[in-house]
Amino acid sequence: MGGSVRQRASMVSGYTPIEPEGLFHGLRWQPIAYGIVVDTFLTLITFVPLYLWFAGPDFFSENEAVANKAVMRAYGSTLFNFVGLVVGGLCTAVGAFVAARRAGVHFVRHGGWVAVGSAVLAVVLLALVPAGPSQPIWVELVGFIMIIPCGVLGGHIAGQIEASAA
After folding, report:
1. pTM, whole model, 2 decimals?
2. CA nearest 155: which of 102, 84, 76?
3. What is the pLDDT of residues 38-69, one digit of tens each?
């Protein structure tokens, strides 16, 4: 009589647990990677118009000092920071939704892992960018705090749509 304790308990009681056995059990890494790419791509695409709106055309100036001043003007705007957090959260939720739909199982977990992967990628990309103007620390903290709930939300919505279609 092999198998895990959960498997043996389900054979005896007929009860099947809803959660997987381990942290990585049942995950499909290809959809997660795809979701991370979708999140990153959407974030990059949507932030260019935001910078144009708040920093103005000086954002694309050849003169680095002028471009940095334009970025600092945008970063100094509370509205820019708020809109950036909302847009970034929505991009993560969309990436998580896409990944969870592609995976077809464990929707919330796939969404959460997209958020974790996107956060890791963001840290790596921030480390690679040369020092320059940066956002206020509260924006960075709120962004990293809300990334997991946004990913889980995207996965949850994918699961709800899947359940309603069945």
Report:
1. 0.80
2. 102
3. 999 999 999 889 988 888 888 888 898 898 88
